[in-house]
Amino acid sequence: MRVQRVLMPGSRVESWTVLGDDHVPVEPVERFLAYLASVERSPNTVKAYAHDLKDWFTFLAGRSLDWQAVRLEDVAGYVAWLRLPPAARDGRVQVLPTVAHHCVEASVNRKLAALTSFCEFHARHGVPLGGLMVTMAPAGRGRSSATSFKPFLHHITKSDPQRRRTIKLSTSSPRPRVLSAVEAQAILDACAHLRDRMLFALLLDTGVRIGEALGLRHEDLDIAGRQVAVVSRVNDNRVRAKGGRSRSIPTSAELMRLYADYLNEEYGPLDSDYVFVNLWGRPYGRPLTYPAVYDLVGRLRRRTGIGFGPHWFRHTYATWLLRRGAGMESVKELLGHASISTTVDTYGHLTVGTPGLPWKRPAGSPVVRSGCDRVGRTLRDDAVAGSAGEAEGRGPCGVPRRSLCSRP
Q: Which of 90, 105, 136, 143 lies deepest, with the highest CB count within 10 Å?
């Protein structure tokens, strides 16, 4: 079996399907994925569901199981199968106890979530799979983290039975990985082109996702107003604003100066709506794609010795805001989270400990006014606009503002 990209007839909207060994779409999977595409789920979401269901039907085919008649023990067998290395899943290779699991707990739970949605979809059409993946559990069991968000009327419904997955592996929430001032500066200085420096400075200064950055158009950058607008739209490079949510993010004058230098010195007379485009590779002038960015990240990793990823800049930005005293609601809006529970569960640990900046200012660093202090005034969060930032003039993780637009 394999996952195949398809274009919806008429609209040319991208979607995905699963092909069987006979190169024909797997009918129950195709119906479910077509439903997701029809309700305008993100193509990335549809793609992830396609890969997860391909694994499920590969497992069923290897054991000659009917997808409409599976039992809970079959799902448990599927979990064990996912944990095996691919070469050992047919049972002909013995796996030693010292071999690490192929799928970590979080990946297994994501695949089970996809399977749950698939079963519930077909249960609505008469297939007896309704109670396979979900059960009703007594109240008082479930999320127990001290930082887990509880809605305003939680006290009214907390005694009602709750939906629970029948199978779910225990996971530990990883702490978000952030960059130190020295690491962030080293990555910026290692960029050979203004375009690359602009990309990572933007991630550091606004906390946008890499897909949101690659989808930026020139009209989204307000130089005079020092704002970056994240707009949900269809892009030629197949990147998207996650969740279809648009927002505006205050940024610094230094980043806007770097943007102007990039346009004048590298972008030139190129006729393109996109901010980040191919200038040295092919096809020339086309918007940058995910693979191009990850190739760039790989080169910078080798050049700096720092094993970072693009999302680290987002975590660094959020950590800097919270250490400066920003409220969770303000950070949620800036990051574009759909629910504040995501913000609380990801960064709630930062509310415990010593307040203030987590990184000390290096001796001899330049002193300039901090453009990011506008975040607090823009969102009317007085806690963010602290006097320390005005005095020190430092952005996320303590990187001097002036260094954002310094020459590579």
A: 105
Please pick, among 197, 332, 337, 394, the residue that the annotation labels catalytic.
Answer: 337
* pLDDT tens digits, 250-302: 999 999 999 999 999 999 999 999 999 999 988 899 999 999 999 999 999 99
Domain count, the chain: 2
Closest Cα to residue 237, out of 296, 293, 196, 197?
293
The question of whether 315 is a catalytic residue gets the answer: no
* Known catalytic residue at 218: no
Identify the domain containing residue 110 by its residue range: 2-136
Instruction: Put residue 60 in one of left, alpha, beta given phi > 0 → left and psi -120 to 50 → alpha.
Output: alpha
Q: Which of 209, 323, 332, 394 is flagged as catalytic?
A: 209
Predicted TM-score (pTM) of this structure: 0.74
Q: How far apart are CA 356 and CA 325, in angstroms?
A: 7
Indicate whether 65 and 191 sit together in one domain. no
pLDDT bucket at 396, cuts 50 / 70 / 90: low
Question: Domain containing 64 — which CATH number?
Answer: 1.10.150.130
Is 337 tagged catalytic? yes
CB contact at 8 A, 328 and 361: no
311 is catalytic: yes
Catalytic residue among 54, 111, 226, 314: 314
Annotated catalytic residue within 51, 242, 299, 349: 242
